[in-house]
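Troubleshooting: if your tokenizer reports a length mismatch, compare your output against this known-good record of 189 residues.
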Amino acid sequence: MEDFDRYFWRSGPEGFWKLERQQTFREPGVQSWEAFRRGEWDESLTLIEGQRDHYEEYFRRIAGSGFALHRVRCVEEPISPYLQWELHLLHLKAQYGEDTRVLSGDGIRRYETQRTLPEIVVLGSLVMYEVLYDDEGVLAGGVRFDDPHHISEYRQVIQEMHRSGEPLDDFFSSHVAPLPPPNLAGEQV
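Known-good structure output:
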């Protein structure tokens, strides 16, 4: 984590680019996720809303450091309970400056001709990580890459996905906001 933080704040004009493919993660210790996992949907959303001041300050600091955050979030339908929760959080972050686009359906399949897309984070032109998770979807670490050519190639592919994705606000309004609270019966959360 220390390694990531050191490079994160030096992302520079190329910015931060993240590709998220998995449909379910576990976020132990995150209060709103813990409430979601317990089936307390309204409490979970209240806790997300309670993070507004934090994200306002966080994105002000990022802008002051001279870079921006960009994310491609792959979404399969039907939307998993976890993803329904995460999209509420991403919607809040987008209101303060995170530039998220949703890639779904054929958009995902276009890039998965050989294998499932990895979870990737590119920090400027300095470093890239393949983010690794255990079998239960808990963050388990990452593999760092520092070859500038490799980093540039991945950043360009993620940027291409981003350009072809649907703006998060549009996707959220039409696909997420109308959903009833997620049913966690039978789900691993």
